[in-house]
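Lab meeting notes turned into a lecture example. A postdoc, R.K., suggested we walk through two folding results consecutively so the class can see how the record format repeats. The first protein's sequence and structure tokens come next.
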Amino acid sequence: MSTGQQVLATPDISPAALAALTDEIGSTAAEYDRSAAIPEAGLRAAHRGGYLTASVARRYGGPELAHRDVARILAAIGEGDPSVALIAANNLAAHQAQALADSWPGDVYTEVLRRSAERPTLVNVVRAEPELGAPARGGLPATTARRTADGWILNGRKTFATGGTALAYHLVWASTDDTAARIGHVIVPADAPGITWHETWDHLGLRASNTHDVTYANVTVPQGNFLEIPLRDGVYRDPAAAAGPTSFGHVALYVGVARAARRAFADFARTRVPSALGHPIADTERIQTVAGEIEAQIVQAETLLYGTLRRLEAGEDLAAHHLSLIKTLIARSVVAAVQTAVAALGNAALTRRHPLERHLRDVLCVRVHPPQEDTALLAAGRAALTDRPAD
């Protein structure tokens, strides 16, 4: 750590502290879901405990928590409010990437950390485009960075930019106008002239994530703010096309949603006393079996999540297509857990005033994070059919 480097708090990741974080963030989740406003209260709570900078490298003055501990944080936040967790996951991933690559200009990243010590200072990679769709499925950005004597001029429109106006910095996926175009991310301060937000986000789930469209019109940035993505074998391969340890933060937050659904199911079962039954439905074997199925799905998801990250931390080399497949299996488990709870409770669980209705909408969003199920299965299937067992 260099002299004068900002020292960031080490978050408390004890079970009691994470449970308190869940409860505080969860207390406003339904309100933000209805209003679709930026979940400022939840973000402040996450910032106050140092959870938004948990992945900052030690050499920058951060705690540099392991991927497994970051996943625990995101599961706890996701159990409270997955919109807050998605914004936090993107921010933590940006710091994890910087810890690995050290690609940001030193003065810019120092400023990010200085501001992060004072208030939520959010970073997100802004990638998807209206015409192209998700970059992980292939293609190059229409958004362009034109070289000037002093830096770059950025132009383009992006869609599904999570965090909206709460972001402090955008990492905008773009191609340069060089003779041999380069692909990378442009660091754009959120207050740069030429940025226009379009309130397009009116979604089934994660409604408070503010995943709106944004336009960049002649936005100027310094030369060093272009972070190139190196070609592999002379070809551009999108980094999101296969899962890596950082990407497990996204499925972790939905493990939290499944836990929240488990809690909502149990609360309902313990208090619902049909007149024909005369006692809580939690006392019936039918509901107890359903609770067991929900528990089985959550245990499966948690075991895959934390077990995989533990193996990676131990230095085990897992193939990218296996990591993508594991993410798919976790996604299936958390969706199954919530759907099982909803199916058992019927109309009550689909009523807007009941939290299970929100948990169902939110958990379905796990399927949109790259690599998506079909691409993960295709990669795993191709590998299985081409790999030969050892003699």
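The second example is placed directly after the first for contrast:
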Amino acid sequence: MNPADERRIHQLFEISVWLKGAHALIECLGGLLLYVATTDAIASFVNTLTQEELIEDPNDLIAGYLSQAASQFSVASKEFYAFYLLSHGLIKLLLVIGLLRGKLWSYPASLAALGAFMIYQVYRYSYTHSIGLLVLTVFDAVVMVLIWHEWRVVRRHVKA
């Protein structure tokens, strides 16, 4: 591969890792917010967001779904999602820092973690049929290819 192509692939790698880092920070913040928010506060917030839409169109699928989900959101569910988001975000943040610093351990660890996350996302998709999960899984697959490529380049330079 010529140096210009290699440089472009490295730039794509860095951009994708920075995007993963931003996503990890959002997950951490979301997890922390869920930990500190009460289920009543969450339900009230969702009701405030959906109230006008439901007045305008009582059959609005998205607003109706969100309102119903918020009213049935249990403390156990809240704590699970908070833990999931925070732990998922912290793991990805640690891996992103390792990748951006070029730490050799971070490449195989990132591949393993992203692979496990992708398996879980496909599993969740089988229940939710969420397009967002599919998009995230495809993005993770692209990031995995870039990490694999970058790892091969880094190992070649370490051997030389």
